[in-house]
Amino acid sequence: MGAALALTSALGYGISDVLGGLASRRISPVRVALIGQVAGLCVAALALLAQASSAATGSDLAWGAASGIGTGMAMVFLFRGLSRGAMSVVVPVSAVGGVALPVLVSAAFLGERPPGLTWLGVLIALPALWFISGGSDQSGTTSRAAVYDGLGASGGIALQYLCLAQADASAGLWPILSGRAAAIVAVLVAAVTFMRNPTPRTAGAKSPTAFTFSVAAGVLAAGALTAYLYALRSEFVTVTVVLACLYPVVPVIIGLAFLGERLRTSQALGLAGALAATTLIVVA
Question: What pTM does this model have?
Fold first, then answer.
């Protein structure tokens, strides 16, 4: 059950990325992120009202808020990397680092000891994510600043996953709610930074489609994080993080099926590796 929820989280994040990317072509990416986080906060609040009463301690709320700060950190570095035109560098580094750091921390400090097949799946998943995301800068040059942005984003992703894993199961969705609130604050800080030199986007500046996509992206991301939270109840952090971070598979498949994109050989290898890694982790 935990593995299925983690894969559901990956699916939600993947679709969220697609919708957010389409919205970012019409309005500022920071605005897309802010709208999404506000929508995620509203959905989390409604879900809490519908959920059976749960008790959250101050520690649970603090871990949730720290997770939200990680989300905000990831957005700050990711948007800065994208503003420098280095998507092919930032995305792979952030995806792979977002997996590697939680896995290493969980094994070294949290005492997790997954079986051998799980470790084999992890080792296959890391390069698979790199290939799926693009592998390297197509221009043949790698910007040092872009690599730093990717590492910063991966740190935020790792913080998000690791901190949320520390919340007690009895807290229910309260850590998700506190995390969305903290993420809004973090994105606002990012907005102040980016709005000093905003990227001009006149076409579609008031696009209702972009607003709808932004809201949907935020709702899906909140749902994906909720699926990740419940997956932790029955799975290792190492397993849950690796499966949840297979989200780059979704934009590749959607691009092939609906956006007329072509699959490069490296991406085909990455997809095959991701499938193999998922199989190993699930059956372990």
Answer: 0.80
